[in-house]
Amino acid sequence: MPALDLVYNPVSGSFSDDHLEALRDALIEAGFRVTPMPTTAAGARLSGQADLVCVHGGDGTLRDTVQALGERFGTDNAVVYVDSSAGEVRRPGVDAAGLQQAHGDRAVAVAAMRGISDPEDPLRPNLILPGGHTQYIDWFCALAAQRSR
User: Fold this and answer.
1) Cα 59 to chain center, whole Å?
2) What is the C-alpha separation between 25 and 48, in angstroms, rounded?
């Protein structure tokens, strides 16, 4: 029976004990040994005994879990931010011109991400793709071609 950490945020505005219980029960019925792992103010934590991790939550819970996985396995996580604000989704977009002017200046970079991120955000993107999904596809294909050499 595979072990599974079920990471969730118990103080999220949309959190529901009933939904968590239904998800846990479905995972148990599917043959998993489930360990509920609530996030805390310090972020996500993992049992260290799981074969799999399931995240029940939003962006913050997923972010915290990815960072916890990096800590657990002693590796950094490359964070790629794909700006999908060009009509695909209604939300703030990256100021691409402002981002190009940043040249390593964190304050300028944060200003270019206004409405998306702020100085207190613990997630630090390694790469920002203001061109949306097409730029991401091009970047990923180039990366794959480079790695296959």
Assistant:
1) 6
2) 21
Phi, psi (5° rounding) for residue 34? -95, 130
Q: What is the pLDDT of residues 71-130, one digit of tens each?
A: 888 887 777 888 876 655 667 778 888 888 887 777 787 788 777 776 677 667 778 888
Within a 10 A sphere around the Cβ of 130, how many other Cβ atoms?
20
127 vs 97: CA distance, rounded Å = 15
Q: Encoding tokens for residue 109?
A: 């970079």
Q: Answer yes or no: pTM beyond 0.70.
A: no
Question: Could you write out the three-class secondary structure of 101-117?
Answer: CCCCCHHHHHHHCECCE
Q: How far is CA 3 from CA 32, 38, 39, 47, in A?
A: 6, 16, 18, 10
Distance CA 122, CA 110 (A): 12
Residue 24 and residue 33: Cα distance in Å, rounded? 9
Q: Give first-to-last CA distance, the chain, whole Å.
A: 39
